[in-house]
Amino acid sequence: MIKVNLFTTGVQKYYFLLLLTWLSDYVYAQKIQLHFDEGEQGGWVPFRTGAQANQSGVLTDVTQLISVNSEIEFIPVPLPARRAQQALEKGLIDFDIICLEWLNQGQKSQSFVTSEPLFEVTEHLITLPSKQNLFPDRASIFGKYVGTIAGYFYFDDSQFKRVDFLNENQLLLGLKHKRFDVIILERETAKYWASQHKMDIKFTALHSKGNLLIRLRQEHAELMPQINETIQYIKQSGALQNILDKHGVDSKVSYTKM
Fold it and tell me: What is the DSSP letter of 179?
């Protein structure tokens, strides 16, 4: 008859589990870390902030998904829009998620490398129903006061007069209270805040249309193939579309390689 020392067996099992935990923590600690701007709480619903209470935004879910499926840990840093670009240029953060169509030629720097596209976003001229006939095309805002977000990029803002607000919520309220006749805003967040404030708004002319992508500082360029491979995986597997569906976002996943 074989006698089993239960105490010894239990101790061995304990140390074995402890070793597995240590190895798991060690492997995780070896992940390369990249810092990025997650924006201010409450900004750019549903992309940076979820539409529901205590819900993460689309971009948080996307970066977590890429991190889980790669050897890179993405660490969010909350920054106001006005400081985010400076932090990126100074290397305080390593990348941002941006649509290049928001930038003018002078803002497109060779100091960055860009990833494969994630999904499409659109910005529109938005006004109240009584004013929609005044803004049939983008040129109709030239020389006029236009509601905008402080720190946000507008590729043609030299052609109109910016009236900056701190966030999308305040911008919609400015339109509601007729501080100006027209604003520029991304479609999904405009729908959300119009619903919250029970506003009837009109999307008139398209202002910009493009894909969100990762813009990474040049010194980390060697990581871009891994990032792109992971982006391909989450697109082809349907995981990226699932995130958009979860947040009720009507945006097209881009399957075109850059």
Answer: S
